[in-house]
Amino acid sequence: MAVQWHPTIAEIGFAVLLALVPWGASLPVVWKSPMWFVAWLLALHILFTIVPYLAGLPVVVKLSLCVGLTGFLIACSYFPLRALWREEKAASLEGDLLGAGEVFNDDKARVAPWVQIGDSDSIFVMVPPKPGEQPQPYFQPFPDAEFRVEFGKKGPLVSTVIRDSEGHTVLTIDRNHWKVYPPFCQDKNYTENTLEVLDSSGHVVLQLRLLPQSFPMPLVQIQAEWWDNQGNGVRIMRTPGRKNGQLSPLGPKITRNESLIKPVFEYPSAKHWGELIGQNSN
């Protein structure tokens, strides 16, 4: 004789609680979605147990109804959940580029990947350091704002600090783990291997792309500007013709706004997270 399960008030309450908690709690979508899914399965199980007509249906019919209803739920909730997930990603103040923090511990770590100024023909190659020494920074516009590139297990690892013309920190990157600082960062957009950051005036102050599979060496594409707290700056970017890279000194009266770094992402990121200009994210 089969033993039938009859849900208690506590068990029904647990299912309701599991469904409602994600609405009020500050949980990411990757946590909310499984909780809602489990609550849905519990709700179906309870429904097919306490409703006499449904409880009397054959097992095959019950399974078919559950699969059909669950598929309908997934189809209806996919796009709203995807939009919520994209909003969360766009609102993040920190994140990781490809292979963040994963450093080689062998001799290969002494060789720095190549650095390219945007997509120009200007490529810099770091002379390998002696055994036991760490790679030197590719650029050091200011003593506290070096641009360092190392070999990582999945590709190049970048570290730098970007400040605005008043010395406020806009962005820090530590071996591909990045963090932006509102209100000095107006917006940013990113993918797994590309990061772009806008300062409070909406100008691009960093455009970074990691190309670990490039031949013959992993490549880092960079366009950026660095400032100290005394109003002195430097901008590294490609020329309009994309042939060469150029380095431009900046200052309180030398902003060179006629030759700003052009964005590669759509903005605002809240509506266009991860979407490159000219790319249809849908």
Task: Summarize the structure in words.
With 282 residues, the protein is an alpha+beta fold. It is built from five helices and 13 strands. The chain has helices at 9-24, 29-50, 52-55, 59-91, 269-272; strands at 94-96, 114-117, 123-124, 148-151, 156-163, 169-174, 177-180, 185-190, 194-199, 204-211, 219-227, 233-238, 245-250. The strands form two sheets. Strands 2, 3, 8, 9, 10, 11, 12 and 13 form an eight-stranded mixed β-sheet that branches. The protein has a five-stranded antiparallel β-sheet with strand order 1-7-6-5-4, with no helix packed on it. A hairpin with a 4-residue loop joins β9 (194-199) and β10. The model has no long low-confidence stretch (mean pLDDT 85).
Provide the low-confidence segments as ranges.
none
Mean pLDDT: 85
Task: Kindly estimate the percentage of residues that lie in beta strands according to DSSP.
Answer: 25-35%
**Strand tally:** 13
Query: Helix tally?
Result: 5
The portion of residues assigned to helices is 25-40%
Distance N to C terminus: 54 Å
Cα-atom Rg, whole angstroms? 26 Å
- Biggest β-sheet strands, sense, barrel: 8 strands, mixed
Secondary-structure element string: HHHHEEEEEEEEEEEEEH
